[in-house]
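Let's practice the habit of predicting before peeking. Look at the sequence and jot down your guess about where helices and strands might fall. Then scroll down.
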Amino acid sequence: ILVDGDAKRLGSAPIGLAEAVPAISRGAVSRYLRQTARTGGADIVAPGGLKPTLGIKLDPIDSELEVIAVVSEPLDKFVLEDYVAATSFVEVELTDAIKLRIEQLILNTFATTSGIANQPWDTAGLFATLRKGRLLAENLGYQPNTLALHPSDWAAVELTTDGQERFQLEPGGVPVDLAKKQVWGLEVVTSTKVTVGEGWVFDSVDGLAIGTDGRLSVDWDTAGDLFTH
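Done guessing? Here is the structure:
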């Protein structure tokens, strides 16, 4: 006798980074322009004088969509028929597996992209390091709005105490706003894929995006080996 229609899931990792990065619709193969250099600049010029040059370098970037896939183990069709919630349960599990892989691919891209600026640990502590990470991006001309941390590091932020071992971070406080889940004005997203002790400060509006055809589908089949490939 079924006493509860919902299947009970094992604990699942929080997914925040994949949700924070915007998606841009792209074809299977596409090209875009990326600025790779800016030199020189404006100056005062006398009448008839030579104007200074602003060196702007634009490179065409070719990109190609790749398929991210996963397949479940074979499932008893009678279980799926008898338990209505089983189908949606499996779909959630498969979808989460895809999103977790996307989070890892985002971080892999961060780590292997040239030009990523690195802010070392500041001896003044966690908050000074985070603020200088934001400052580093700002000095490079960007407007960061998101901070990706491992859940353990976000817990360290929340557990910060004063000199008398009292928790001091109230909602709406500075530099942390617990109600909005922000540090120094940066929205915090947590992911178990982020390395403990590291954080990523980025602009989730104009700084990066995921190219996608907009399709995330779950298919059911009994074709055996043909389906698994």
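How did you do? The chain has a mean pLDDT of 87.
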